[in-house]
Amino acid sequence: MADISSQSIVIAAEPARVSEVICDFARYPEWVEAMREAEAVEEYEDGYASQVRFVLDAGVLTDEYVLVYEYADDLSRVQWHLAAPSRTQKSQRGSYDITPNGDGTSTVVYTLEVELSVAMLGMFRRKAEKMIMDTALKSLKRRVENMGSPQ
Q1: What is the CATH number of the domain that holds 86?
Q2: Is 5 exposed, middle or buried (0-12, 13-18, 19+ CB in 10 A)?
Q3: Biggest alpha carbon distance in the chain?
């Protein structure tokens, strides 16, 4: 059974800058610690990735999977789901919702629902989910804020 978790963070950048980083999948290995590979395997006509293959190596957890992406017209929402079960996941759904705060910052809400193929005690699963979400949001914040302003 999958649990839905959600966390948010404020990033010192406009939403367009945040979504630019989120949608630049090829660069994920540069700023997502456990990400070894990320490549768009299919694209929409507008050039945004429709399917992305990921190779994850987090020590005790390794996996290769493909996520299917959909985007709001203004990129204020990026959502995905697992294309097919992987070695460790039965399902995965998630989203980034990006809202301008009116002061040059954005609030990013990260929502994730994962059903694992392997059994894991509830308290360990919740702790792992919190760690994954904390790391993802803090890494995104660091990446966006350290990139400087767009050219």
Answers
A1: 3.30.530.20
A2: middle
A3: 48
